[in-house]
Design brief:
The protein has about 350 residues and is an alpha/beta fold. It has a single domain, classed as Rossmann fold (3-Layer(aba) Sandwich). The chain is about 35% helix and about 25% strand. The chain is built from eleven helices and 16 strands. Helix 4 crosses helix 5 and helix 7 packs parallel to helix 8. The longest helix has 17 residues. It starts with 11 loop residues before the first helix and ends in an 11-residue tail after the last strand.
């Protein structure tokens, strides 16, 4: 008797196509969530051989300066026992660099990573072997203040879209023909869910929101209000709500159609810092910023750190100058990327936030 070979599970596009065929078009947020869950679970997307590069992978200076920023807050808060938390820590590069800098200041906290990707958890374990992993923020420790870092985390969370058609706003859905996915206008939505200042936008206008991001920021702010500590959010974004579609796909370090090949490319959207700041304040945290990443790193001393590294390793001078430029110049990451801090009750104001 021979075993019958197992039928392989259909690829994500086929599974999504079948779900849409049977149940009808799905919200853009549901499409984005399914695509990114598969994408991050099945690969390490970072680096030259991946699809994109984040700031910690550009230079050790980024993580080191964040580590010193956190250590300064801890020192001025009275050096309490606490936990280091990172949301979506990539390969663990930022944490490794930040923890090294913190240790030089005397801060050596337990480490907690919020990460669901098996591939990335394996890379993180190589970089920070003593880390503890969590599937979401609800299981983070409650016994001490938290120092939380979220670098390019919120941009990958799903966005809900509405589109203006005629005199009404409609939920934007994703339909499918065979395995070709395309956005369409769904049912009309009530006017009261549309920001009043935007209700009369031109036909074809799109407004995005991210309920998932709001929920996580509210949860973090409530923790900080109750436990103390701080959160640093670094991402690309804007002050909203605003009209405009920012959903995009990145594949092989270039842009692609976000509705092509779900699960095989990174889907992101710009972060609405104003909405997140408002929700954090309502949930009990003090908000500082956002400020441009270039200004933030400049005030933390990135130029001086680059010069010191170049003196120690003269053969790296050109690479360090290029990394400095990429991280801080307005035409690179310096202006589009922004840093915002959430501060818990009784904790001091953070450095470099204007």
């Amino acid at each position: 008797m021979t075993d019958t070979p197992a039928t392989p599970e259909p690829l994500l596009p086929e599974r999504l196509a079948r779900a849409i065929t049977l149940g009808g078009p799905i919200p853009v947020a549901q499409f984005m969530a399914a695509a990114n869950a598969h994408y991050y679970a099945t690969r390490d997307p970072l680096g030259a051989t991946g699809d994109f590069v984040t700031a910690p992978e550009i230079s050790q200076m980024f993580g080191e300066l964040i580590g010193l920023w956190l250590a300064d807050l801890w020192d001025r808060a009275g050096r309490p026992e606490l936990h280091y938390v990172e949301l979506g820590p990539g390969r663990g590069t930022l944490a490794k660099d930040a923890l090294r800098a913190m240790a030089k200041a005397g801060l050596m906290p337990p480490v907690h990573f919020v990460e669901t990707s098996p591939a990335l958890r394996a890379a993180q374990a190589q970089a920070v072997p003593h880390a503890q992993w969590h599937d979401d923020v609800t299981s983070l420790p409650e016994d001490a203040p938290l120092l939380i870092v979220a670098n390019e985390f919120f941009d990958a969370l799903p966005v809900y879209q509405i589109v203006r058609r005629g005199e009404a706003w409609h939920e934007r859905l994703v339909a499918c023909q065979d395995t070709m996915f395309l956005p369409i206008a769904g049912k009309a939505v009530p006017d009261d869910i549309v920001p009043e200042a935007l209700r009369d936008a031109a036909a074809g206008s799109i407004i995005e929101s991210s309920p998932a991001s709001v929920a996580i920021v509210r949860a973090l702010a409530k923790r900080l209000a109750a436990q103390g500590g701080a959160a640093l959010i670094v991402d690309y974004g804007y002050d909203g709500p605003a009209v405009g579609e920012t959903l995009q796909a990145v594949k092989g370090h270039g842009f692609a159609n976000p509705f092509d090949n779900p699960g095989d490319q990174d889907l992101t959207a710009h972060v609405d810092f104003a909405t997140l700041a408002g929700m954090a304040e309502l949930s009990g945290a003090a908000v500082h910023g956002p400020v441009a990443q270039g200004d933030f790193l400049g005030l933390l001393g990135i130029a001086e750190r680059a010069a010191a590294l170049a003196r120690a390793q003269p053969d790296r001078g050109g690479d360090l100058a290029e990394a400095h430029r990429r991280l801080t110049h307005p035409s690179e990451m310096g202006a589009l990327f922004r840093a915002m801090a959430l501060i818990g009750k009784g904790w001091p104001a953070p450095a470099a936030m204007g």
